Amino acid sequence: MRNTTKTVTTVLAAGALALGVAACSPSSSDDKNGALVVAASPVPHAEILNYVKDHLADKAGLKLEVREFTDYNTPNLSTQDGSVGANYFQNQPFLDDFNKKKGTDIVPVVTVHLEPLGLYSHKVKKVDELGKGATVAVPSDTVNEARALKLLDAGGVIKLKSGVGNEATPKDIVTNPKGLKFKELEAAQLPRSLDDVDAAVVNGNYAIEAHLKPAKDAILLESPKNNPYANFLAVKKGNEDDPRVKKLAKLLTSPEVKKYIKDKYQGSVLASF
Length: 273
Prior knowledge:
five-stranded mixed sheet, alpha/beta, seven-stranded mixed sheet, lipoprotein, palmitate, globular, Lipoprotein
């Protein structure tokens, strides 16, 4: 039986939860002979980790515990305070923004996969069918909102100001021929918004959780070529040489995991190694 702990949180509760976890359990990063506790989004991150736990970890001499979180704040906060030893859920632009805003010092260890960001709709089948004044929901966090707008820019739906970076907002749109309106929602809520808006830009992990198939269902999909948004295993700075972390990094980039990702996700998740 898998030793998996699922923790349901909200952004507002993230800090409190992280402190609560730290208060009731010893630091995961202190005992190098104990299990490595990894915070992860349920899909696909925890699924990939559980594959490693069930099929590869014992042979490598690695004790692994997976804790699932449904928000994008608690995993880093828990890694910073030592409640968990590592996390697996994020990309470099998101981490850079988080470290800057929260004063944390989380660092990447090894890149594992990419979840292409997609535009989905229950009302139109092609992106050019979006009507005048249509409402498009986008993630509310800084990096993913910018990423969503860049997707729409790349698809010719809007045009962003030249040189705009990972802090782009709708205010940076210079051409909007359809007069699209943008609704900012927490990333986890976006799949549930599809009946209420004309379209929504959804992160790959939440799309898969909602039984959407990015490679098939997205009316606009991010290209994996030269994509900076690949997801990685991360730790608090200074823990990169933890032997458990090194073992997990090696297993996450093994041929077995590459085959698992290919077979299970059928192009909705792409190995990045």
